[in-house]
Amino acid sequence: MSFAELGLSAELLRAVDTQGYTHPTPIQLQAIPSVLSGRDVLAGAQTGTGKTAAFTLPMLHLLSAAQSNGRQRRPRALVLTPTRELAAQVGESVRLYGQNLPLRSLQIFGGVGMGPQVEKLRRGVDILVATPGRLLDHQGQGNVDLGGIEILVLDEADRMLDMGFIHDIRRILKSLPKQRQNLLFSATYSREIEQLANGLLSNPARIEVARRNTAAETVSQLVHPVAKDQKRALLSHLIHSGGLQQVLVFTRTKHGANRLAQQLITDGITAAAIHGNKSQGARTRALADFKSGAVRTLVATDIAARGLDIDRLPNVVNYELPNVSEDYVHRIGRTGRAGSEGAAVSLVGPDEYGLLAGIERLLGRKIEKIAVDGFEVGSPAPRDSANRQERGNQRRSGGEPGQSRAHHARSPSARRNAPSGDTAAQTPRHARQRGGNSNGNRRPVR
Ligand code: AMP
Q: What's the whole-model pTM score?
């Protein structure tokens, strides 16, 4: 089934096409027709399933199909999210999917000045994507009138409840018109969610997508503890020794992305950087080269990586952990798409152990930690890998792109979840696995 068959408008189909999406994901297949028919929806879906487009596309369709009535440019749709990051991400999706429509959207969240948000509210907005606290601040100051809301979306409702937003949500609900369409998305169901849904939704379409499609479960995750100044050498080593052919590497800064790409090239690994300072043309070219295999490594910042859709991307490397734990989930969501498997490896310096603990809290589990032989924290600087040249092992015999992924996290390990500080030296398992590869150019593991 295609997006066109779901009944979305030509403008939305063009936007979806621009994103490179060819087929709707399972949640989109189920949710889009229900939302288009005007029904309330209760959907169980985690991040990475395409849930944002599942509510945003039909929402945009309905808003653009029906003329607004009442006062000009009062918000007609409201998406509530638990965090700023999610509001920014959903807001960006609304912008991307609505790029061919004359609808105005605005993100409203705390931590930034109210002024620009007030200004945009005054000029008129069709769609608000907001965190509850800041939205209430604006309401309290009379900056926003929610009396024209036709569609309400609660995104990641379970997290909103976990974060204690239930009273804020109830206050906001009171200011909305009674007659409206309600969509509730939640990764988990609890009694509290049921209660919220019962009070909010009327005869909802109940949608549940298989958990196996979620990034967190199809992606094997691994941490390599390593000193900061050895990260670059370790990355080159992993790419060489693992025969990794398509690796998306995340850095925190644009400057860091540029520098790392340059260093990888010096190490004999084809690389390109992609970030906000690059022109659209340069970004498109880098992505095309990466997809075609002309460039083996794409180094990206979080912002630049949003919206990247690379089919069956086998490897993601966190060269630096993100400051915001949720970004980790988004990063690893770049691999293991649509049920295919992927490997996410994080190179973690001692200064990042706090960030790692935050990520593990968010995931609700520990990530396996393995120190790579010769790159353990505290070991002398390893032999520099700058002079290692690839000797024609770009094309591996019989190699599926995904074949080079590390299978480490799925194998039993005595060192599973060992504390970062005392992990024993060990050859990365994917490297050992590749040792028997018929390709004689595989560099021996140090
Ligand atoms: P979400 O679950 O909304 O966070 O989406 C996860 C990722 O899937 C986002 O990066 C989207 O760009 C991407 N995505 C959404 N729908 C599709 C689709 N139909 N095909 C491929 N990628 C998609």
A: 0.55
